[in-house]
Please model this.
Amino acid sequence: MALQSLTETVRVQVRFSEVDSIRMVWHGNYVTYMEDAREAFGRKFGLEYMHIFESGYLAPMFDMQLRYKQMATVDDILLVTITYRPARGSKLIFDYEIRRESDNALILTATTTQLFTTRAGEFEPSCPSFFEEWKRENNVLAI
Amino acid sequence: MALQSLTETVRVQVRFSEVDSIRMVWHGNYVTYMEDAREAFGRKFGLEYMHIFESGYLAPMFDMQLRYKQMATVDDILLVTITYRPARGSKLIFDYEIRRESDNALILTATTTQLFTTRAGEFEPSCPSFFEEWKRENNVLAI
Amino acid sequence: MALQSLTETVRVQVRFSEVDSIRMVWHGNYVTYMEDAREAFGRKFGLEYMHIFESGYLAPMFDMQLRYKQMATVDDILLVTITYRPARGSKLIFDYEIRRESDNALILTATTTQLFTTRAGEFEPSCPSFFEEWKRENNVLAI
Amino acid sequence: MALQSLTETVRVQVRFSEVDSIRMVWHGNYVTYMEDAREAFGRKFGLEYMHIFESGYLAPMFDMQLRYKQMATVDDILLVTITYRPARGSKLIFDYEIRRESDNALILTATTTQLFTTRAGEFEPSCPSFFEEWKRENNVLAI
Model:
């Protein structure tokens, strides 16, 4: 049986304070848009930051890769799509695609990898049980 | 006997990501520069955020007034001067003056007022004892 | 005849990156939310930044006053209402009110005053004609 | 003859507004620290944003890869080291290493790749002459 594809899209209006001196979105702000998507994903699929925290864990960023395809400007509406990438073990991997709403132009692709740590910040090498359960419930158990 | 004037100055280099599309510092970023100064003040005079927190209190912002005098641009070096304004009761008031280092031009004046609350967020109407003591030690007890 | 009341409300979802170490919205971020509202106002009533710019002017911030009423936290949905305050001359004044959607709690009130300058940054003491016209069209000419 | 190694280090004090709700530096802020280093590099070696701009070009971000090694917290002083990585053609590649000053702990490694475009945003596939010259002057011409 194929794994389910878990995905969510958020709509982001570029803020005036988010463009730089050539009126293009400052490259660091995409990290914020990606987090917007990640939080919307969490709300949709029950993987909110607070749920992770209350299960006794943190999910700090471990690796982040961004590829910029085209520049976006002030007043652009961006569609940020996040997709869960099934992976074994104690890792949380997401792929992102950001497109401009008006012309569907591809603005950015990215991938983030988060690890699980205890609240005290100790790396947790085995998959936390709450996450194992979440994978099972959502039919995204990687083999 | 005159009250002591408690003051501190920090040097801030404007970041590229802090200027807007006309290459001027985005007006909201001065709030960050003011906080830089407030933290340097805390380190200098023993009124750090952590000291307040460990004494059982928070000092959330209650009122903030900014008056913009001139625009600053990327690569400007700004000197942010913060001065404690003696006040009675459970209030923490600071005055700020931001000048450009190169020509001493006045960029901004501001005043912030913080109140004390318990860690649970309850307003504390009487002056916390740690703060009373801090005022006495620093000779800034307003009459 | 009474002046028209020009107002707009935007809905802002607090971002994880916008809360501080006590999980409350960092006080400087309200400046961003206010700008969100100002831009929505501009789009609704034809007073966008670009319209001002193409008319030959800038409208830099001159004065900003914020009064914090209650703290907002991550995942709060905020309703930011902006209202144009009729004023004579070369000034653009807005009042703001931020409420939490879930319980209508008042989070912040604020007022901003912008002045008009030429694109070169020279203060423009008389009211720009495009703005005079805008006031007339929107029935907000202060007497 | 070996290429010269062009490098610069900047000292960054973590701001209170830059830590998240677990008092750790929010992962997106490292992008800002990296830009701080890139600008200091530009000032040191004559490759400022303005120099690029006045030569008729922009250098937008094309690819960014960050690897988080350890979390940093409020009041940490970070040392951000940037090193130019010699590359052929119309690319500007930098490697970064961020360490905590107090214990030299490695916090983050990263690499950024910028491309050159005309001011109108058209990709420039051949190496701009000002950049060719800069490489020659600094003895970093990749073969």
Summary: The longest strand of chain C covers residues 91-100. The domain at 7-137 of chain C is CATH 3.10.129.10 (Thiol Ester Dehydrase; Chain A). The longest helix of chain C spans residues 29-45. Chain C touches chain D through ten residues (CB under 8 Å).
